[in-house]
Amino acid sequence: RAPTRSARFRPLARPAWFAMAASFLLLGLAGSHEATGFWLWLGRLAGLYWFLHFLVLLPLIARIERPLPLPTSLA
Fold it and tell me: Which residues cross the membrane (predicted)?
């Protein structure tokens, strides 16, 4: 678990959150179309990232990320 919980002080967590949100939207978009061709592959790639985000990326970020120092008003 990361020592700093706010994404404001975690430089790797914020882009990962936006990528996860984009994956969520792409999954919804791909799910609203017929599962052929482009939409099929878009859904597969977005689903692959969705699971990798939670199973691989989040634990990895928590281990390797060095949070920015907290301001003195919060510390």
Answer: 12-32, 38-61
Q: In whole angstroms, what is the distance from residue 75 CA to residue 22 CA? A: 33
pLDDT digits (tens, 9 = 90+) for 44-72: 999 999 999 999 998 998 888 887 777 77
User: What distances in angstroms separate CA 55 from CA 4, 33, 36, 52, 71, one per listed residue?
Assistant: 20, 27, 27, 5, 31
Angstrom distance (rounded) from CA 64 to CA 12: 9
Burial call 52-67: b when 16+ CB within 10 Å, e when fewer: ebeeebbeebeeebeb
**Angle (nearest 5°) at CA 53 between 6 and 11:** 35
Q: Which token pair is 17?
A: 């959150």
